[in-house]
Amino acid sequence: MNGLRARLQYVLRWIRARKPDIVGLQELKMRDELFPTSVFEEEGYHAISHGQKAWNGVAVLSREPAAVRQVGLPGQEDFGARLLTADVQGLSFTTVYVPNGKSLEHADFGRKLVWLDELARHFREHHDPSAATVLCGDFNVVPEAIDTWNEQELAGTIFHTESERKRFAYFLQWGFSDLFRRRNPDERMFSWWDYRGGSFYRNRGLRIDFLLGTEPVARKLESVRVDRDYRKKKDGLTASDHAPVIADLG
Predict the structure, then answer these.
(1) Do 224 and 246 touch, CB atoms closer than 8 A?
(2) d(CA 231, CA 234)
(3) From CA 154, how far away is CA 145, in angstroms rounded?
């Protein structure tokens, strides 16, 4: 999102157009006391957030009231506000902002792998794969070659390493489906494009934003798409470098 303060009007434009029932937000870059709860209430949404000054931050918007279940990933609090779980509309709904990792040589890369391991542990110990559960967000991982604009050049680099891909694959083994890939097994579509070098218009992107759902969720899936149109500038409003991912559960 690149900071909610900078993108608020764009987010409002999107929710007015798409009218989602539940929204997971990442990269708020603001403390909870500054979160624009009243603005979203005027749009018909309840809002809960887990934020911090200048970095990270996640939130859930929902048409129906949500009950907070987990704030932060246990044991990983020093890495920032990156996880929020709420029970809402019959779902356990978790939004995450996985650490970027910066580069393979940076200390944060190893910490990213640990964070993903701890996220896996958290779901193993506190969630039930047979229950209706959604895990969504910016994973900063490219799962397969089809999810990157240039696997030949980028394989083995940040987001494209086997260690990252192995950890993403764990969530599918645990009981999640990648909802976009379930419905679109062969479609080459991205969710993030760098602002530089005309990447969006040249379609040099990565699919690193995901809606994962357990089987009770996946069975209800009617459609899912990357909302690529909302990666474009709208009436002078600049979009995030990420496009929203939307699923209709019927």
Answers:
(1) yes
(2) 9
(3) 9
Distance CA 243, CA 191 (A): 5
CA 34, CA 243: separation in Å to the nearest integer?
Answer: 24
pLDDT in tens, 137-187: 999 999 999 999 999 999 999 999 999 999 999 999 999 999 999 999 999
Q: What is the pLDDT of residue 1?
A: 59
**Nearest to 50, CA basis, from 60, 41, 40, 42:** 60
CA 226/CA 189 separation, integer angstroms: 7
Indicate whether 12 pLDDT > 80. Answer: yes
CA distance linking residue 5 with residue 177, whole number of Å:
32
Which secondary-structure segment (H or E) carries 224? Answer: strand 223-226
How distant, in Å, are the alpha carbons of 21, 172, 181 from that of 214? 18, 9, 14
pTM (whole model) above 0.85: yes
CB 194 within 8 A of CB 241: yes
Q: Please state the rounded mean pLDDT for residues 110-132.
A: 98
Beta carbons within 8 Å of 49's beta carbon, 6+ residues apart? 28, 32, 35, 37, 57, 58, 59, 60, 84
